[in-house]
Design goal:
alpha/beta, globular, binds iron/sulfur cluster, about 350 residues, two-stranded antiparallel sheet, 9-stranded mixed sheet
Length: about 350
């Protein structure tokens, strides 16, 4: 049996750790040959191997259904490639860009929208590609915000992150940096004082956006890791993916949002799961997502309400797809109990 301090990267290791029964080895090895696998000790410790529906296992343990692909699914579901003027940059909206600095992650989520692009050993931007990406940002004065993404940027060393942040901070029109990461929950030990310092830049705002999907992911260590950012003056937001069998009930979703707020993290987006290949078993319908949003509105504080969004396939950006409470003619508005009220037509 492997020591619990190692990252599991193969179906064999999952069987060794008794996270999956050995009779599933061949099927899962076939999935692992197609899509990257990594489960950190922090996440492995949360998995209840005796529960076939465990919501943490569903996010990280490969499933034979990942090899089933449907015509509506796409290798690049949110259309990054169509909006990539130079390697590492996605420029979809006028005032902000994604800077994808690394194509590796601490864990590999089974529903990942970039699953065809990320994996161990994929590395990051070469020095020349990074220089070209920074040149692009420098040459576009309308870019106000840079989103550090990947992969997961926080798998890089503090030294490497500091270098990138300070080069971005030297661009006068870049006022805001945003880091998208899953590391504070899946590998909280990586959030060291040096890494937190590396993300700070004089006279620039740095936001940290945490990807988290189930309240159990917010362990004591994860909370402490997040507190390091907030205490250092970096506001935190959260984005979650609506996933069948993980968080698609109002109690779990509400508990996740409350736990985040208690950690001083504002729920930002609830993403409708993208049409990534082999992920149909984890997707809900949009109607189910809207019903859940209705269920948490009113029952949970306004601080606990994320915006339910869909990344339109093909790269057309995000649109809010939450339920509508106002009739089309604006004459009737619905309250959180579902009761309808007239609203006067004149101002
Ligand atoms: S951390 Fe993000 S990029 Fe990495 S596998 Fe998970 S969803 Fe994909």
């Amino acid at each position: 049996m492997k020591p619990p301090s190692t990252i599991m990267r193969s179906a064999e290791e999952l069987c060794d750790r008794a996270l999956v029964p050995r009779e599933r080895l061949d099927a899962l090895a076939a999935v692992a040959a197609r899509y990257a696998v990594a489960i950190t000790p922090a996440m492995a410790d949360l998995i209840d191997a005796g529960d076939p529906q465990d919501p943490i296992a569903r996010q990280f343990v490969p499933d034979a259904r990942e090899l089933e692909q449907y015509p509506q699914e796409r290798a690049d579901p949110i259309g990054d490639d169509a909006f990539s003027p130079v390697e590492g940059i996605v420029h979809r909206y006028p005032d902000r860009v994604l800077l994808k600095i690394v194509n590796a992650c601490a864990v590999y989520c089974r529903f990942c929208f970039r699953r065809e692009m990320v994996g161990p050993g994929r590395g990051g931007l070469s020095p020349a590609a990074l220089a070209a990406a920074l040149d692009y940002i420098r040459g576009c004065p309308q870019i106000w915000e840079v989103i550090l993404s990947g992969g997961d940027p926080l798998v890089l060393s503090a030294r490497r992150i500091k270098d990138i942040v300070s080069r971005l901070a030297a661009i006068a029109h870049v006022k805001v940096m945003r880091v998208h990461t899953r590391v504070p929950v899946v590998a909280p030990e990586r959030i060291t004082a040096a890494l937190v310092r590396a993300l700070r830049a004089e006279a620039k705002a740095t936001f940290v956006v945490l990807h988290v999907n189930h309240p159990r992911e917010l362990t004591g260590k994860a909370r402490a890791a997040c507190a390091r950012f907030v205490d250092a003056g970096m506001p935190m937001l959260a984005q979650s993916v609506l996933l069948r069998g993980v968080n698609d009930d109002a109690e779990t979703l509400g508990a996740l949002m409350r736990t985040l707020v208690e950690c001083r993290i504002k729920p930002y987006y609830l993403h409708h799961a993208d049409l990534a290949p082999g992920t149909a078993h984890l997707r809900t319908t949009i109607a189910e997502g809207q019903e859940l949003m209705r269920a948490i509105r009113g029952r949970y504080s306004g601080l606990c309400q994320p915006t339910y969004v869909l990344d339109i396939p093909g790269g057309h950006g995000k649109s809010p797809i939450g339920p509508n409470y106002l009739s089309q003619d604006g004459a009737v508005v619905e309250d959180f109990h579902g009761r309808r009220h007239p609203y006067p037509p004149r101002r």
